[in-house]
Structure formats: structure tokens, C-alpha cells
Amino acid sequence: MATPNVNSSIDLRSGGGTAERTCQMSRALALEGATCTVLTLDIGLDAARIESVRPATVVTLACLWRRFYVPRGGWRTISQLVKDADVVHLMGHWSVLNALVYVAALRAGKHYVACPAGALPLFGRSAWLKRAYNFFVGSAIIRNASAWIAVTASEFPHFEAYGVGASKVTVIPNGVKEVDPLSVSRSGFLASTSLPDAPFILFMGRLNPIKGPDLLLEAFVLVSDCLRDHQLVFAGPDGGMLAELCTRAEHCGLADRVHFLGHVDGEIKTGAYRFARLLVVPSRQEAMSIVALEAGICGTPVLLTDQCGFDEIAAVDHRLVVPATSEGLAAGLLNLLENTDDLEQIGPRINAFVQSKYAWTTIITQYTDLYRRIIGAGPSS
């Protein structure tokens, strides 16, 4: 089965969770025997990122306009990939590359699957441009797909707004690959990040409004006197809020307790998960938090807002999901961090929960079964 997976960026700095989902899903498909190719733009890629996708392969197109991820040419490459495909997978929505692949799929009469991963609502900047995109091509991409994938059931209303009934949408959650957290020492991690040897609360992701780092900082301000021995660590690239966050921390007299690591990967990222007392995902809107799964696979307790698309984690402990407000996050921080015994028990329970439900070896069969149904081959054995 030939399955090109299309995403404008698989660079973690710019692509975020959908980039990671694309890479991990592609790798898992290839390990299952599919001929899997990732079609993307040549933004922020290095040898390590390409290697992480193997045995899937990566095909890149040059980027003409980075602001809107417009490819420079590449129509022949797109047409050939689509021609050779059994099923094409489109990740995200607001994408010139997706539009070009859609046109190629129509011309070649090929099946394609749409997985917006929470991107369908008009959220954030350039609303007028997004309306124009939907008018000319975006709405048609969704309506004409052979199948539709949601990361969580909370996306059903998004699809319904485009004329696709919830009963037609298949929910396939994010998956997570196993890591070896014991490969990183605490002393090595602290030395590489210049962090003090103190308990810390971790934020992992882009510093932009949708991810809610400002909500977490305000929550930390509210509880800082109660958690005097704790530090707050932001790990992730600047998405436009770094200066604002630094200024706010300094204004509140917390500059020495709030740290910004920038983008992290590899052993530093694993170390951040492993040695954090608590990962917090303060998102204002998210399809399903991949960083929560990554922390969970390391056995790290997780606190999320109810806008993260991962309320299932409340089955481990109801205190792990809170409202997406600074007050809700502050209450969650105190409930967990002031109960040390409970916190130590939550980590292993989250690990078992994630391992059993979200390992790629379990989830990837949902993709292969869906693809086989689309092309009429029946479910995999």
C-alpha cells in the first residue's frame, strides 16, 4: 500500500504537534509494511529529523514564501506521488500544499483522507485569508474527501460546520513512541540547561497564545508564595510571546524562578520530561496534546486544561483536568504539588494508561484498516 502523508512542515519548531503526529504515524505505517512517503516543504529539516521518520521516506519541496508556506514549483513531484498512491493523507487544513495535492488527487482519481487535527475553526490571525481559502478550495477539500479523521470526538462540530456528519468521521487519537528516560542523568540535564537543582514545573511547546503560556505564568504568580521551592521552566520556540512573558516574570519579581530554554529536542527534551515534577499543558485550544503523551510515557504527572482534547486522562485522577484559566491552573498546581504522596503515585498510573491506549503499535492498525476499507481491500488481518 502506497500512502503519501502531506504536511507543510514536519519541523517541530514551526509544525508543532501535527508535525510530530505526521512523522510518528508515517514511521509506524512504514514499519507495518506500507510504502510511506512524507511530502513537506524544506523548512527547518536536518538529518536527525529525516532519520527519525525512517523507514518512511521524506520528499521535500522548496519553499517560496515562508510566511504562508507556499511551495516553489514541485507540481511534477506532487503529481507523480499522487499517481503512485493508493490513499493520500492530508494533515492540517490551511495549506497551499494541501490544495495542490487535492487538485492532483482529483485529476488522478485518487482517494484521499482529511485529518485537520483541530485546524478547521477560524482561529488566530489572517481570518480574512482563511475565509478566502475556504471559499476557493478549503471547504471542497473537506467535503470531497474519501474519509475524515478526527484526533478526538471534540472535533465533530468542526466537521459538521463543513457539511460532514459526525457519523462519517473516524476518531484516531495521537500516538506516542516509547523512549528510554533512564538514558539521561539529572546532573547532565541540569548542566546542559543551566537550570538550578530544584523542583520545576514544565511547559513544553511554542510560546504563542493558543498554547496558553501566559495562563501558566499567571497561575505560577498566584501560587509562587505557596510553592517557594519550585521553578517554572518554559521549553519551546518563541511564537511571539517570549518578550511579554519575560517582562511579566520580571515585573512580578520571579525572573530568577522562571526559565526559558528555547526549542529542545533529543536527550534534553527527554530529560525535561523525566525530571519535571509536573508537566502543565495550559492550552486555550488543542485537538489532543502530544506533549501530555510524551510526558506520560516518561512517567511524569500531567496537568491539562479542559481545552486540550485529552479529558480521558481524568480517568487516572480527576484533578489532572482543570478550566483553561489562570485560576483553574493555580488550583490544579496546588492540588497536585502540595500532595507529594499522591503525585508520586500518579506518574506510574499515567505511564500505564498511555502505554495501554496510545502506543503506536496499537493505534496504527486503525489507519491501515481505514485505508484498506477505502480502497476495498477489507480490514487487515
Task: Give a topology summary.
Blueprint: E1 2-6, H1 12-31, E2 35-41, H2 47-53, E3 57-61, E4 63-65, E5 70-71, H3 75-83, E6 87-91, H4 96-108, E7 111-115, H5 127-143, E8 147-150, H6 156-160, E9 169-171, H7 186-193, E10 200-204, H8 213-223, E11 231-235, H9 242-251, E12 258-262, H10 266-275, E13 278-281, H11 290-297, E14 302-305, E15 321-322, H12 326-337, H13 340-358, H14 360-375
Parallel strand pairs: 1-2, 1-6, 2-3, 6-7, 7-8, 8-9, 10-11, 10-13, 11-12, 13-14, 14-15
Antiparallel strand pairs: 4-5
Helix pairs in contact: 1-14, 3-4, 7-10, 8-12, 11-13
Give the termini distance in whole angstroms: 14 Å
CATH fold-type name of the largest domain: Rossmann fold
Number of DSSP E strands: 15
Q: Residue share in helices?
A: 40-55%
Main sheet: strands, sense, barrel: 7 strands, parallel
Query: Which sequence of SSEs, written as H and E, runs from N to C?
Result: EHEHEEEHEHEHEHEHEHEHEHEHEEHHH
Overall structural class, as computed from helix and strand content, comes to alpha/beta
pLDDT < 50 stretches: none
Q: Count of helices? A: 14
For the record, what is the CATH homologous superfamily label of the largest domain?
A: Glycogen Phosphorylase B
